[in-house]
Amino acid sequence: LTPAPTRQNIRPDFNRDVETLAEPRLLLIHLLREELGITGPHIGCDTSHCGACTVDMNGKSVKSCTVFAVQASGAEITTVEGIAGADGSLHPLQEAFREHHGLQCGFCTPGMITRAYRLLQENPNANEAEIRQGISGNLCRCTGYLTIVRAIRAAAERMSNAREAAE
Amino acid sequence: MTTETESTEARTQKLEGLGTRRKRVEDVRFTQGKGNYIDDFKLPGMFSASAPGPTTSRSPM
């Protein structure tokens, strides 16, 4: 038996304040799913290809299977669970994915939506090519992407209309 | 979720065939990360296993 690695205190903000211990080798996705029971982000491939584990960390999309839990110490993290409104209303992206059939089995959807959420903050009026480029780190085996791109484009329009109406 | 039951006539009228856009009930939870996939469950005494496949084609197992 080898001695257990030192545990470190980490304080990620997973839609709420969390203080927990994590071994240095623990991956963020395992902290989320196994330790904290946050099962929105999925493990699709374990090799950073598929993007099903995508979460938002300090304003950037990261694949949480490629981030150590300790790297998230003090970080602000939003998972797919944190994207809907506090009152339970769906985010325009979630509405649009439903409306345009941007999902079938739904396994890649948490990653897709979390990524699209960040993409539309980086580029609120992303065109089709920019959306395709922007979600290229997320794989979907059901839809062929057409409906996903359509859904993100529709959400972008709806969000931009809502912004204009608010001004 | 609606509890109203539509009449058969009303439902038939709304069926438009292939390619019809229809909102699915399950998409509400799928888009919020509440899919309840098998790996999302944790039961007492549960453990995971995986079977490694051959690393090259036609290699002996």
Explain what you see.
The complex is a heterodimer of chains A (167) and B (61). By secondary structure, chain A is of the alpha+beta class. Chain A is built from 5 helices and 6 strands; from the N terminus they run βββαβββαααα. A 4-stranded mixed β-sheet of chain A has the order 2-6-4-5, with helices on one face. Chain A has a two-stranded antiparallel ribbon with strand order 1-3. Chain A is globular and about 45 Å long. The N and C termini of chain A lie far apart (63 Å). The mean pLDDT of chain A is 91. With 61 residues, chain B is an all-alpha fold. The longest helix of chain B is centred in the N-terminal third of the chain and has 7 residues, at 8-14. The model of chain B has no long low-confidence stretch (mean pLDDT 82). Chain A binds chain B through residues 33-34, 37, 39-43, 79-81, 83-84, 90, 93-94, 97-101, 103, 106-107, 109-110, 113, and chain B through 21, 23-24, 26-28, 30-35, 37, 39-40, 42.
